[in-house]
């Protein structure tokens, strides 16, 4: 090698080494910043620290979906005075039934309550990939109702995010059920149609990020074990992401954020990738007319980055008799962030349902 070539090689090595050093310093700095940010949150006094998230359990029931997938459900309130109403809670994407912790804890005396894990989430089993659709979730809900709700009970459906989509899918495929059995509906932080994911970012950047979500998730799914391992060891980044995208502008308990983060990390990247296209294609706005005669509650935080509040406003406009609760400062997990407000709104809905119950609803046909 000539002296000139040797000098050029040294310069190139120096540039590469310098670049790697800067990259390493940046990564190290980011990790240190994340750890410090999380430490500051965890060091605050936290009244929810001993809440026991994920430990509330009911009587377990296995419900077999129409494609043979076992679905896990739990029933609360069977020992209480019967009210003639069963409330069925449907959780959102990448979560499980424990997202309803506060409502499960506080809605005693309101009738039987059914909590279930949607397919491939929580304790429910995973089905074939071609059955990973919102329509299938609606069919699963139909089976859950048939298996867990007494024939003479009224049904109130509560859906958060993807769970709200599940309710609308059921309305689309079984409108007769809403004329005969379903006596109340709560749609929380959800949408009738996914238009564009922006994650709360400025419009141009948000559209770019939203458009790349599907291929990005599919790419991650190529190495699910590696990605899931990274999600487990990168706890600080995962925690901060859960805080940013799950909640709004106010102070949120570290224990609550950790509860959300735990549910998200328990959902494998393969399941997340498999469900995303179905959610992205979701369009059940035409099912809203089925809900016209049913007492309905619509709830959304005005800092929801996942299903922004204009989605809930569109649902409310299509259902002029619905009660619309706008929660200032709250994000997507509004039932964890502002639990008392959501629980009170659900109690009000159940009072409306009782007032509309002039006579028992007919029995659900056998399925």
UniProtKB/TrEMBL annotation:
Entry protein name: Lipase
Domain AB hydrolase-1: start-end pairs: 86-339
Listed GO MF terms: catalytic activity
Organism: Nocardiopsis ansamitocini
InterPro entries: AB_hydrolase_1, AB_hydrolase_fold
Domain of life of the source: Bacteria
SUPFAM superfamilies tied to this protein: alpha/beta-Hydrolases
Lineage of the organism: Bacteria, Bacillati, Actinomycetota, Actinomycetes, Streptosporangiales
């Amino acid at each position: 090698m000539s002296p000139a070539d040797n000098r050029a090689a040294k310069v190139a090595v120096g540039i590469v080494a310098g670049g790697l050093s800067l990259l390493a310093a940046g990564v190290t700095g980011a990790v240190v910043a994340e750890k410090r940010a999380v430490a500051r949150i965890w060091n605050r006094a936290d009244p929810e620290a001993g809440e026991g998230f994920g430990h509330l359990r009911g009587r377990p029931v296995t419900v077999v979906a129409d494609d043979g997938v076992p679905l896990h459900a739990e029933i609360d309130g069977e020992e209480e005075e019967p009210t003639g109403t069963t409330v069925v809670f449907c959780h959102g994407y990448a979560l499980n039934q424990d997202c309803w912790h506060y409502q499960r804890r506080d809605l005693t005396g309101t009738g039987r309550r059914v909590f279930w894990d949607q397919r491939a989430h929580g304790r429910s089993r995973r089905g074939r990939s071609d059955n990973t659709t919102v329509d299938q979730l609606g069919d699963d809900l139909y089976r859950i109702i048939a298996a867990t709700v007494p024939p003479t009970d009224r049904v109130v459906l509560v859906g958060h995010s993807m769970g709200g989509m599940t309710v609308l899918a059921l309305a689309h495929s079984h409108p007769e059920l809403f004329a005969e059995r379903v006596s109340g509906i709560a749609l929380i932080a959800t949408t009738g149609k996914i238009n564009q994911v922006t994650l709360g970012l400025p419009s141009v950047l948000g559209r770019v990020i939203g458009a790349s979500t599907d291929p990005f998730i599919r790419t991650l799914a190529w190495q699910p074990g590696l990605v899931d391992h990274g999600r487990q060891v990168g706890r600080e980044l995962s925690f901060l992401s859960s805080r940013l995208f799950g909640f709004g502008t106010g102070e949120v308990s570290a224990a609550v954020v950790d509860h959300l983060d735990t549910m998200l990390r328990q959902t494998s990247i393969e399941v997340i990738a498999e469900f995303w296209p179905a959610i992205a294609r979701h369009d059940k706005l035409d099912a809203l007319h089925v809900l016209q005669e049913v007492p309905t509650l619509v709830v959304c935080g005005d800092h929801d980055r996942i299903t922004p509040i204009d989605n809930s406003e569109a649902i409310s406009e299509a259902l002029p008799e619905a009660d619309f609760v706008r929660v200032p400062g709250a994000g997507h997990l509004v039932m964890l962030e502002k639990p008392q407000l959501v629980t009170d709104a659900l109690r009000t809905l159940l009072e409306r349902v009782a007032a509309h119950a002039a006579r028992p609803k007919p029995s659900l046909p056998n399925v």
